[in-house]
Amino acid sequence: MDRRSWSNVLKAGAPWPMEKWRALGSGSTSSAGSRSLPGVSRITLSPEQAASARLEVATERTRLEQAALLLETCARCLTEAREAVLLDVQQELLDLVLKVAMQVIHDEVAQRPELITFQVEKALARVKEDSMMTVRVHPSMLDILRQASPGVLESLGPTARVHFEPDSSIAPGGCMVETSQQIVDARIATQLARIGTALKQGPSP
Description:
Blueprint: H1 3-11, H2 17-30, H3 47-111, H4 115-125, E1 132-137, H5 139-156, E2 161-166, E3 175-178, E4 183-186, H6 188-201
Parallel strand pairs: 1-2
Antiparallel strand pairs: 1-3, 3-4
Helix pairs in contact: 3-6, 4-5
C-alpha cells in the first residue's frame, strides 16, 4: 500500500492496523484459559480406570520395595562372606607364620644350644615355691644345663633346689618345670600355641 492509500485510510477514520492486531492479541489472551494448547488432548478417566491405575502404582511400589530389600540382603550376605573369607585367610596366614617361627627357633637352638639356660631360668622364675623343682629338657640339652646350674641356682636364691631330668618328648630349646604344687609348661610349641591363640582372638574390647 502506497503513502496515498495510507493517507486515505487515516482520513476516513479507519483504525490503525497495529491497533487491530493488539485488539486481536488481547482478545486471544483473555480467552486462553478456556482454550486447549494445540497438540495436547485432555484425558478423562472413569472411576474404575482411576482405581485400576492407583492399584498398579501401589503394586509397582511394592515390587520396588521388595527389590530394594533383596538388594540389601544380598549386600549383607556378600559382606559376611567377604569377612569369612578374610578370616580364613588370616587364620591360614597365622598358622603359616607360627610354623615358620617354630622352624626358626629350632634352627637357632641347634646353632646356639646355650639358649636353653635362659629358657629354664624364665620358667623357674614363675615358680613361687621353696620345694624341690624338677626341670625336664631334651637329652641333648642336659649337659649344658648341668654346666650352667651354678649360675641358674644363684639366680633363684640360696634355698632353691633343682633337679634336671632328660625327656625326649620335649623338643630342644624348651622345658617343663614340675613341683609338688604346679607344673610350668615352657615348651616351644606350647608358647607358640599361646601366642597364636592370643592373635586369633584379637585385642580385647
